[in-house]
Write a structure and sequence with these properties.
By secondary structure, this protein is mostly beta strands. It has 6 helices and 34 strands. The strands form 4 sheets. The protein has a 22-stranded antiparallel barrel. Strands 3-8-9-6-7 form a 5-stranded mixed β-sheet. Strands 1-2 form a two-stranded antiparallel ribbon. About 50% of the residues are buried.
């Protein structure tokens, strides 16, 4: 195919117009995107950075190229389908990651290494205040990452990294990316873009994302057959999932001074989101957040430390649940700040390390009839160190962290303030070998602790999103877990593999269990009563990925790829709730300078190991096809398309509270164009 020449200024103008004037869409389907196959440096794993194939921590990376062609969806749905990662799937407007069967307060969602300062961990219908469309890169750490990020990362970390505060001057004075797309399943329109401009020692960034979706189409009834059988009713078919619309607009500005020894910069971001809750036909949520960030780095010429890094974030967040047009109901407010400082040691003879401090203050407030958690103030201070020795053939790594977390609240219906203070210690140790070229073997052991959240301690009321009356226990202790994990990386010749096998033993696992009682509201609605309790728990599982180059010639390659994961979770009270079933994906992919094409089959198994009050979930098989072509002289302008769930299968995400009243979207065609400059 002969390349088509196109004017760069004309394309920039067209894409910029699309970003500024277009709508956007969140499709609630998995990205099913393979992690980057280059040996990426993972800054989320350690302050000094470790490459993917040299770490004992399970990681995935979505880089700028991946994100440019990824679906315009909320965070949980974007990372859903990566090994060991699923979504809470609370409709298109709100979904958080589920990592190894853990979610909510056990999975830390970050922006450039700092917390969101929102209310997304309080309830599954609360959206994350940062959209993937803002990201330059997303790093996912599976398993305990508490040494660097504290107890809220006991299950894993998803770090959304943007360029809003530039750390280096753009090559040629201008760098960026714009992308726009459309999806048929929900009439979804999405656009995003960011650009960094250099001027002397200064660099300035502007970014924006917008997406909008109607109610999405489903292949069968919203209600599952399991729920229909349990309630003795007939399923009613529907073309669309009611109240599943969403829209989002976010924009930001930032700038830095960049010198020979480092940088310092500030940024501002405004996020506005509105979406239907699905759980209630007429209820929708309006979310607004304003956020300021500052970040800097200074590199030393000599001494034991190579550089010092510091960051600070402050945000004001308001989340209003409307019971109909012009009828505001419960309001959630969250404002606060978080800061982090790190001294990174100078690398000496294979030895790397860092020491750091972290502190945060957050004020959470719920106002209205459905406020089930009282106003709570959260303070936390942390001190940590991580160290690594890497010889050519072997190495060791480890770390230690101390956290003090204080939660203060006046419980609902009471007048006296209750204060709980938790002192938590976390530690890890690991050893690794490189017995031959391309082979990495690692074994890690960690002991981590997590303080209970404000919901687990102080909840007392009807929680519509979970269809339960939730009661906390202010006497809960810290949750403790010991995790053993084995790692194998192999990259030699045509074969690349990545395997992680883990087992986690919990002491004082905080679990929400049905009491057998029921509560009837003034409106006549009846809800089962659940209470947060502590019990022992045992989690084990694996994640595996492999790619084999079947044929290669120049820039052209045909490869066979696969991935699989499994998690098994038991507590002393029975199976843990909402644990995702096993999954396996097979993919045949062709890549070249001009064309990319991939076809895949993804199988998600049945889940019949359920807790009390849960219903089993049937398995499903998705057939997906995607491709991209770069027909222009400038190869940085791919046109891309994806067909998802081509056989229009009924599917439900077992990790979702809504899985028995909301099916996943049906057959979808998504098309778009992106331009990197």
């Amino acid at each position: 195919m002969r390349p088509i020449r196109i004017s760069r200024p004309l394309l920039l103008s067209a894409c910029a117009w699309t970003v500024l004037s277009g709508g956007a869409h969140a499709q609630t389907v998995s990205a099913n995107s393979a992690p980057a196959q280059v040996d990426d440096v993972i800054v989320t794993a350690t302050p000094y950075g470790v490459t993917q194939r040299a770490t004992t921590i399970a990681t995935d990376v979505l880089n700028d190229q991946d994100l440019a062609q990824a679906p315009a969806v909320s965070l949980g749905d974007l990372v859903n389908g990566l090994p060991g990662v699923r979504s809470t799937d609370f409709a298109p407007g709100a979904s958080r990651p589920v990592i190894r069967g853990l979610s909510g307060p056990r999975v830390q969602v970050l922006t450039n290494g700092l917390g969101q300062i929102d209310a997304s961990s309080v309830s599954p219908d609360h959206a994350v205040a940062t959209d993937p469309g803002e990201a330059h890169r997303i790093e996912i750490v599976r398993g305990p990452a508490t040494l660097v990020y504290g107890g809220s990362a006991i299950g894993g970390v998803v770090n959304i990294i943007d360029d809003r505060i530039p750390e280096k001057l753009p090559e040629g004075g201008l760098e960026g990316r714009v992308s726009t797309q459309y999806s048929t399943v929900d009439n979804g329109r999405g656009a995003s873009g960011h650009a960094t401009v250099g001027a002397g020692n200064f660099a300035f960034n502007i970014s924006g994302v917008t997406r909008q979706t109607d109610d999405y189409r489903i292949p069968s009834a919203p209600m599952s057959q399991a729920l229909a059988d349990a309630e003795g009713v007939a399923r009613e078919d529907a073309d669309k999932q009611p109240n599943s619309w969403s829209k989002l607009n976010a924009w930001g500005l930032g700038g830095s001074y960049i010198g020979d020894k480092g940088f310092v910069g500030v940024s501002y971001k405004k996020t506005e989101s509105e979406y239907g809750t699905v759980a209630e036909p007429e209820v929708f949520i309006n979310l607004e957040q304003e956020r300021w960030d500052a970040r800097g780095e200074y590199r030393f010429d000599a001494g034991p430390f190579a550089k010092v890094r510091a960051s600070y974030g402050h945000a004001d967040y308001t989340h209003t649940e409307f019971e109909g047009p012009g009828q505001p109901g419960t309001i959630f407010n969250s404002d606060g700040w978080e800061t982090r400082g790190e001294l990174v040691q100078r690398a000496r003879d294979g030895w790397n390390g860092a020491v750091g401090v972290q502190a945060l203050e957050r004020n959470f407030e719920a106002i209205g009839e459905e406020a089930f958690v009282p106003t709570t103030k959260i303070d936390e201070q942390g001190l940590y160190t991580v160290q690594r020795y890497d010889h050519d053939r072997y190495g060791f790594e480890g770390g230690l962290r101390f956290d003090r977390r204080t939660l203060s609240a006046v419980p609902l219906g009471e007048t006296a303030q209750v204060e709980r203070k938790f002192d938590n210690w976390s530690a890890s140790a690991a050893a690794f070998l490189r017995p031959q070229a391309g082979l990495f073997l690692g074994l890690s052991l960690s002991r981590t602790e997590r303080a209970p959240s404000e919901v687990e301690l102080f909840a007392d009321g009807v929680h519509i999103a979970t269809a339960a009356y939730e009661t906390g226990d202010r006497n809960l202790d810290s949750e403790k877990v010991t995790t053993l994990e084995g790692t194998v990386h192999y990259d030699r010749g045509p074969l690349t593999t990545d395997l992680h096998v883990y087992r986690a033993w919990y002491n004082g696992f905080i679990d929400e269990r049905r009491t057998g009682a029921e509560v009837t509201t003034d409106e006549g609605d009846t809800f089962p009563v659940y209470r947060f309790v502590q019990t022992g728990a045992d989690f084990y599982g694996f994640e595996a990925e492999a790619a084999y180059a079947l044929w290669r010639s120049g820039d052209r390659k045909l490869s066979l790829e696969g991935a699989a994961d499994y998690v098994h979770a038991d507590t002393d009270l029975g199976p843990a709730a909402r644990i995702p079933p096993w999954s396996a994906t097979a993919r045949l992919a062709w890549t070249s300078t001009l064309w990319d094409l991939a076809g895949e089959v993804r199988r998600v198994g049945e889940q019949d190991r359920v807790s009390e009050g849960e219903l089993p979930t049937k398995g499903y098989t998705f057939v997906n096809l995607r491709g991209a072509v770069r027909p222009f002289a400038d190869r940085n302008i791919p046109l891309f398309a994806e067909g998802h769930n081509l056989t229009d299968q009924e599917a439900r995400e077992h990790a979702s509270f809504l899985k028995d009243i909301a099916a996943l979207p049906g057959r979808n065609l998504r098309v778009g164009v992106t331009y990197a400059f």
